[in-house]
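hiii, so i know i said id send this last week but things got crazy w the move. better late than never?? heres the sequnce for the chain we talked about at the cafe, plus the structure i predicted for it. fair warning i was half asleep when i ran it
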Amino acid sequence: MKPVAVEFGEGKSSKLRGDMNKGVSVLDFILRLVAVLGTLGSAIAMGTTNETLPFVTRFIRFRAEYNDFPVFTFFVVANSIVSTYLVLSLPLSIFHILRSSVQRSRVLLIFIDTAMLALLTAGASAAAAIVFLAHKGNAKTNWFAICQQFNSFCERTSGSLIGSFGAIVVFILLILLSAVALSRR
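okay and structure toks below
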């Protein structure tokens, strides 16, 4: 056996660090898949939300759809954009699993993830405000709660917020994971 010179700072700890970065990359890929499911599910649930109530006669009906509220339309568009970005970032996440030592693409992901987090938070927060008004109303401005009449509509809009806020938490974890992976270099 030939003796091999080992430089200072390399050896077992370097291999351990590489394995840990690979584990962080795998977790990044899994969290991206979870976020895709949350944002896509939220966009589909909100985009297909509608309810029709009959009035005194069968010719007069009240109808509630998601596109009656511009905030809900923004919510669907924001979730769709973020979901598309997440699907397009999956190959880059796979690349990070294969080559866990890359840095520039991980920095790029941090910046774009932060922008997508801001977009998703804006859409979910605006929609949450309208859903709150639909449930509780506002007596000072004479906005009545509509959820007593449109129960199914309110349940679906409330449910779609859960997936979106879950994806916000996942995005925060993704940004922290990428920062940890970069700090290990």
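btw Helices lie at 12-47, 70-98, 104-136, 151-183. thought thatd interest u
miss u guys!!
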